[in-house]
Amino acid sequence: MAGVAVSTVINGDAVEYLCQPDEPLLDVLRDRLGLTGAKEGCGTGDCGACSIILDDRLVCSCLVLGAEAEGRRIETVEGMAHGEKLHTLQQKFLEHAALQCGICTPGFLIAAKDLLAKNPDPTEEEIRFGLAGNLCRCTGYDKIVRAVQDAAQVMKGA
Amino acid sequence: MNFDPRYSGRNFSSVGTRPIRPDGVDKVTGRARYGADFNMAGQLVGRVLRSPHAHALIRKIDTSKAEKLAGVKAVITAKDLPDLTNGDAGMYDILDNCMARTKALYDGHAVAAVAAIDARTARQALKLIEIDYEVLAHVTDVDEAMQHHAPLINDAIFTEGLEEKPVKPSNVTKRSQFGHGDVHQGFGAADFIVERSFKTEQTHQGYIEPHACVASVNLDGTAELWVCTQGHFVYRQHCAQLLGLEASKLRVTSSEIGGGFGGKTHVWAEPVALALSRKAGRPVKLVMTRDEVFRASGPTSATSIDVKIGARKDGTITAAEATLRYSAGPYAGSWAEIGAMTAFACYRLDNVKTVGFEVLVNRPKTAAYRAPSAPMAAFAVESAVDELAKEIGIDPVEFRIKNAAQEGTRSSYGPVYGPIGIGPTLEAVKAHPHMKAPLKQNQGRGMACGFWFNFGGQTCVDLNIGMDGSVSLAVGTVDVGGSRASLSLVAAEELGIDYAQLKAVVADTSSLGYNDMTDGSRGTFSSSMATISAARNAIKILRDRAAQMWDIPVDDVVWEQGHAVAKGDKYGNLGKLSLRDIAAKSGTTGGPIAGHSELVADGAGVSFATHICDVEVDPETGATRVIRYTVVQDAGKAVHPTYVEGQYQGGAAQGIGWALNEEYIYGKDGRLQNAGFLDYRIPVCSDLPMIDTQILEIPNPNHPYGVRGVGETSIVPPLAAIANAVSNAAGVRMTHIPMSPPRILAAIEAERG
Amino acid sequence: MRYIRPLSIEDAVGQLARAVGPAAILAGGSDLLVRMKGGFVEPELIVDIKGIAGLSEIRETAEGFSIGAAVPCAVLGENAALKKAWPGVVEAAKLIGSKQVQGRCTITGNLCNASPAADSVPALVAAGAKAVVVGPSGTRTVAVEIVPTGPGKTSLAKGEIIEAILLGKRAAHSGDAYLRFIPRTEMDIAVVSAGVNLTLDEQGVVKAARVALGAAAPTVLLVEEAAEALIGRKLDEAALERLARICSGACRPIDDKRGTIEFRRKVAGVLARRAATTAYARAGGK
Question: Among B357, B306, B376, which Cα is nearest to B142's?
Fold first, then answer.
């Protein structure tokens, strides 16, 4: 089985890799590129822990082949902070204690970033439905929703 | 150790504040390393072959073809994990569960494993392993398994706890009984009696992180294990015993843990990974798939419970009785016993009797899930309590207040209570605006109480002071929900320094003494006690060093607000020495400054909660929506209130999922049909409302700060609170959990006739 | 195993037709990758059709809309004209999986996956949608309901690809709606579902109707008797009752992990009734 050579852009940086034809992008990110921020909670698109943004579209990286990333742009949680400055969502997740175990947090942050990019002033219901593809088993979602609400207010004012 | 654990009623400056957790930045930037985020040079990929049968004799396993496949470095079966348990039945069950020895006992039971150079090769190798099974009759339902004609899962099991020793083996492992008084007489004095039977289906903790480990066994008998676990010291003991290693030569590092809730308290994959590594001579990484997590880790018991409660017209309960049947999977545990202990723990009863039967079934070995066994018992009891209040015509909150246990009450499971929170949580609920909020059509309100014991256990903490005055705190209880933050607050409080001056870490098994698991809500309770003790030991040394620096007797030095202060007028010109001042000189005053503590944290305070829930039921489809939810729980003392709220909210959300939709569904073939997050339906964000919390603080007399465990009790009341709410909304008593739409609709239709 | 990304439909058809082992078409991958992960399929050839010109576009034509086979469902919701014309189809497409899944999955894939519970299919059937099938022997246009023939099975021949789904122009006084029942609010597969498409006359009397049920039989059911029950009437209580009864009766569901026969029967009627009410209001009926 021949490897597929892929040139792509991850968090603004040009990246090249070889992957198997059937290898999920999640495995490429984690096992070949050392980007372990995206997590595998299910591998079947049911938990959102592997969420990334692919050409401005929120997707589960477990449901994308590594080979498909050719010529595209990928954003992962590792690209959210800039230098010493956390993204507002990251800061608000910390302040609101929107994480307990933290395994779902990268996925939630990416999904929330995508949500606020498309809807800067969401209602609570829009946040809840917008984040329904990300499972959290620790928090009951309460503090996550509050963190996103707070971040939206701050980002609107920025 | 001259450590006094009694509650001292002090004022706090750090404890009770809400700083950002020390592990937070790593977790929001993706840098935190969980079980599957760690790799070793030259590591192989481990994969497990699992039984497709619910119950089958393993006649023969032929691994020769798999062994010959290029890239396969080791294939193991039970033969590679010889029995070293030396008559320890519990350990033998763990061994058999890790790798089936003579029989596959459930769909998903491990029967062989491979280590190969990559995942593809490992998967191919599994397909080449040939197993000759003799399929046996199976049983997955708890009530059916108790029938005398049921297929026998283990013919060496004879029911314990019966008056006469049984002559025939049985799927019932144990009968347990608790209570006092005379229930027969008590029911005779009752004006009203409610008697009901209930069922609850099996659920899973549903942690988002699958089990994962990296094992490396060296030729010299030493080994390393990186693993997501709630208790790396316990994993070390179990793995060392099963592999024949010396415990202290097996270094276990607990990764960040992506949820456990009791499910990561048992070894499954770890001994297998170690055995593969030993055979292959290389490190092995073994990560379960989500399908494997559901099929082959440890879900809860399924239960079948009968409850009978009688009361007088004035609302006094005269007798309470319950028979509780809990499935255990194919191995004995103590699940029914715990259920029988907790069932009536909220109440002050003169006549009470509970009998538990633990039952073997062809399902995965039951594991703890947050206050294990208590939610099911509470569902049955609190449903019957609600119904009885209705029959008497008394408000359900008033009825519970009237019968609530209090300090001095002899509990239904034996001990006499000290100061407890059940009464205060009920009074808080009674006064809560939620109870008075109007309801619309098809909406109903329910409330219920819950109890959990809480545990203490063996605990060890190291506190090291750097020469710059910063402090590192090494704890051995795995941080499952923010305990590094709360323990840092406790250390800051004791030392009188700023929280930011501290960093707490979870130490590996070679760097710290033994610690029990983070279970039984003991993480913050026990490790805070040890942290206080360690800090006080450090303060002794700090005082001693200050005395040296001042050249005065140590007895004249006291520790106040982070400073050594010379006591007495004669030292008026000495000023104060800060922790930093003393630390800076430590190299010349006797070397490093540290405080250690090793203790058994006795006296965990029991915990009570009362929840209120509003639901709306669609009478045409049976769909239920939770529209408002309130948790009131006693924390003893909330060290980091935000994370206490988080425990309350998380437990409530898990309880809501359990109450409404989560269940293991087995086919007639005994195979699990919904081993994934698509059809094992845990609540999503849009399913839930905000979950309001109210923290009560009734100090635990056995902890210096009054702390009680807070992690588990929050999952105990929701099943019953929601069942009571749904029953009120739909006009029909729901007795089967989960109250999935088909069950609710069927109940509504049956009621309509 | 090979992964290819042809740039023309002819090339894709040729590659598929010539494939020796099992071959799979990849658009959104939300079904294919799950099946590969579970070991249920091991394709020798994966044909990614997203590089083919036009397949990732929604075109508005004189006849209506042409939705390319590789258009993610999320994009349907961002097309204002499509949303206005076929709100039922768009809401069905936007119910599949999660936001993450909608960013990848396609209605063509949903159709070809041939699950009886596919969310977009009852809505497409009710809408009278057609599929443009390109194959080694040319192009044919078929009603979508003939594509799935049973769970996991389609009428597509080796080498055939659906290039686009066609939706007609929205007639005056017409509207559609889709509803499904799931135990949670998101992330579930339909336990049972109903799509209704209605055209009214000036007085609000139903002139034409199509009623389709999902997860009620091995394939999506087009319930003609239910349509007949509505035609020639306003959507009064009696008509809705009759619709519900017919839909419940038309179901041939199974008991499974997602629901019971009784539940599906009963709720099929409830959903048909509710969807019809919404479709009627969207058509301007009062």
Answer: B357
